[in-house]
Amino acid sequence: MLDPRLLRSDPDQLQQGLAKRGISLDLASLQSLDEKRRHWQQEMERLQSERNAQAKKIGKAKAAGEDVAPLLAAVSDLGDRLDAAKASAAEAQDAFQDTWLGLPNIPQSDVPAGENESENVEIRRWGTPKTFDFDVEDHVTLGERDARHGMAMDFAAATKLTGSRFVVMRGQMARLHRALIQFMLDEHTLQHGYEEVYVPYMVNDDSLMGTGQLPKFSEDLFKLEGEKPYYLIPTAEVPVTNLLRGEIVAAEQLPIQYACHTPCFRSEAGSHGRDTRGMIRQHQFEKVELVQFVHPKKSDEALVSLTQHAENILQKLELPYRVMQLCGGDMGASAARTIDLEVWLPSQECYREISSCSNFEDYQARRMQARWRNPETGKPELLHTLNGSGLAIGRTLVALLENGQQADGRVVLPEVLRPYLGGQIEL
RNA sequence: GGAGGGGUGGCAGAGCGGUUGAAUGCACCGGUCUUGAAAACCGGCGUAGGCUAAUAACCUACCCAGGGUUCGAAUCCCUGCCCCUCCGCCA
């Protein structure tokens, strides 16, 4: 949520910022909603103040043993007037809130305008895509080929068990998948200073509201049937960021850095027909997520280091990638700035997203009321929140298989994984 | 699943339907005293919204959440959520 005061203090910044996302804001109607809301709030509070004064008077009169009948008569219609004002105030508040809560974050000043990913800007590349002197296979072919213990990567089995966009892995493939999780968590906790957390994989709607998935993007989520209205998490961002919902932390505790592995569940509504083959786009996938809560003045540098932490994983895994600055229209609604990491996939001969690192500034924190106490003012102030994938496990597995493939069908894995694979680095 | 108890400020813990945003203690901040510290004493000490030049004053709301009764609710009623104890079941 944006600061509602922005509407009065700097409407131009609001309008121009959202324009970068391709949103043309009807400033006049929004301002009128805001004025209505404040007008009715003032009217309601005026009546409440009157009621309090009268009630106090009655109390005193009664205590003094006086006749309160005339006083009661004087307030007879106050209740009705107050109820009417309350109703109008609530209505005006809802009308404003509906619109306001739906507004995405304002992109930072140097975020390029643009409608979709075609207008993202490449910042840099790392590594050189390998040239193969044989026809490369994609990860599906490579994964399904190992028939020693049945298929190592078995999409048909998953379809039988559940449906499309799921996978079953066996043997060394399942082990490699697990190894990647361990490796990444170890790197982030031991090398990058993150604290590991374990969290619920189901959350309530308050949490989804806090990070911005609700109320607008419910179609992307799996909602559970049952008496509790829980949702499967679409990313660890939701439970981990909400750890600080409604909290006020001490300045010395900052920055707070959490690393968390969870499965992620996404309905992928609206992406029918996209990436239907293989593990690129699944309803269920594993991810190691990095989440930071920082001093509001330090979130820009925090995004740089968080991105570097994700890049370090790719570099240690020897996977070529490029770094993309997302344009306004391609960023998630809550983000003020997003940097994507895209890994090279030989079978597709292109770079594909494997990590998305965002600075949300105070947008999520305001929704969640996640704050720190500023020693200079003694007052609670909003934190800045950030997160990034470090990395998406399924896509990392895909990248390793495809980039490590050999002419004879073997897959050679990077040296760093050896300790996690019982000394082996080959599939 | 069954039976009972409870949710008040950072913590502990009072609170008859009426001047209670809420006693008291602890913690915390400032001051006096002290060479310094401790102790003692004095003062301060919640959050959000509105109004405003103001992070001043003032107004409003908030004692788990949402409804209700009343001129007036932390206090009475209903619903929900959460916590605790006992029994059953269980990884």
Folded structure, characterized:
With 427 residues, the chain is of the alpha+beta class. The protein folds into two domains: 26-101, Serine-tRNA synthetase, tRNA binding domain (Helix Hairpins, Orthogonal Bundle); 117-421, BirA Bifunctional Protein, domain 2, CATH 3.30.930.10. It is 38% helix and 19% strand. It is built from 13 helices and 15 strands. The strands form four sheets. It has an eight-stranded mixed beta sheet with strand order 1-10-11-12-15-9-8-4. A three-stranded mixed beta sheet has the order 7-13-14, with no helix packed on it. Strand 13 (371-373) and strand 14 form a beta hairpin. Helix 3 (27-63) runs antiparallel to helix 5 and helix 6 crosses helix 13 (393-404). The two termini are 48 Å apart. The structure holds one RNA strand of 91 nucleotides.
Question: Brief description of this entry?
Answer:
By secondary structure, the protein is α+β, with helices and mostly antiparallel strands. The chain is built from 13 helices and 15 strands. Helix 3 packs antiparallel against helix 5 and helix 8 crosses helix 13.
